[in-house]
Amino acid sequence: MDRPLRILHITERLWPPGGAERLLADTAAGLAAQGHHSLALVAEDSEPGPDAAMPVLRWPRVLGPRPAWRLRPRLDALLQQCQPDLVHLHNTAGFFSPVLIAHLHRRLPVLRYVHDARLACLRSPSKCLPGGGLCPYAMGLPCLARCYPVTSPGGHRLGDKHTLMAFADLWVTRRLPAVAVGSAYMRMLLRQNGVADHRLHLLPGFTQREGPRCPPQHGLLLAIGRFDGIKGLEGLPDLLARLRAPHWQAVLVGDGPNLAATQARAQALGLAGRIRFVGRLEADALTPWLTACQLLLCPTQVPEAFGLVGIEALAHGRPVVAYDLGGVREWLQPHRTGVLVLAGDAAAFAAAVDGLLAEPELAASLGAHGRALVSHRFRPQHHLQPLLNLYRQLAGQRAGTADERIPG
Fold this sequence. Notes:
Elements: E1 6-10, H1 19-33, E2 37-43, E3 56-59, H2 65-70, H3 72-82, E4 86-89, H4 98-105, E5 110-114, H5 142-146, H6 161-173, E6 178-181, H7 184-192, E7 200-202, E8 220-224, H8 236-240, E9 249-253, H9 259-268, E10 275-279, H10 283-292, E11 295-298, H11 308-315, E12 320-323, E13 338-341, H12 346-358, H13 360-377, H14 380-395
Parallel strand pairs: 1-2, 1-4, 2-3, 4-5, 5-6, 6-7, 8-9, 8-11, 9-10, 11-12, 12-13
Helix pairs in contact: 1-14, 4-6, 11-13
């Protein structure tokens, strides 16, 4: 029988939990159930949060090449203390220097799971051009002219530490033995940015949730995310004002810097009595809303790497209306598990919501297909077994073979 593995997960934070943090926590729990041991290394200034699913170590937020270089002996001591079989990188941009990632690669097998577009976009994680529209370009020096003109006030400069580290991060990632992504969209994005196809592995997200088979509350709409300009929740009051359905209520779950402005907009539109803001909720507290809602709305207008909240709704038998961006098509099959709308077309989005509210039987049918899809493709075994196979493959290889060794 294969021996248990020790995995060192490196990520900026575990709390508050977004999609990446929930996927990591569920992965660690699933690995523990099979006898494997996980540890997390997080930024020392990150929020502590509740008890994690694994032991947590803290690391200084150091990006510059010289300070990071001086931290190598401390990293070696940590590896000696933890004795991991391999390192699993998650969201490390702005926290864990690529200098140290290169150092790790010379000592241990390293797998990187790319949770969003930060690795391939200086305006991360939007992957959008400043004037609007999606960016079709690979990350490179032209980005400095398109998105950060060196002559503009406040623009990035070639000597800017964060810009240099972003390029270094991508350069190092191209040389790691394995890079995992959650969707075909992310695989395409990394291919475009020079990650070799033989290093890329598709490992979609998963959910352990299983909603009860009960009818929804007719007309109840649900949206979940941060009010930070990325998930599109700020535009929901205007979008909901377009609805023609006579009876609907909306629950918006999440917090963020734009929450107050969104509440004010709902008030100005006369929708304060129909839109309820409930703040950030723990995973267990989300379950009653996922069970009660008739539809989940995903109004983000930037590409999603995967969209974990979508499969959580489908697991409860609730269809989804979303803009057709990024990795959403991994789980939202048009007119089978929900409705996909052309990105930015708010009128079409509202019409899709109206259509499903007017046809509850159709919404129920889409939800049933969604529940079946999750059972067949997005349960823990569909992620953890391929991940363990990859771990075993990497652990059986010597990190940094002669042709892949990163100079240092």
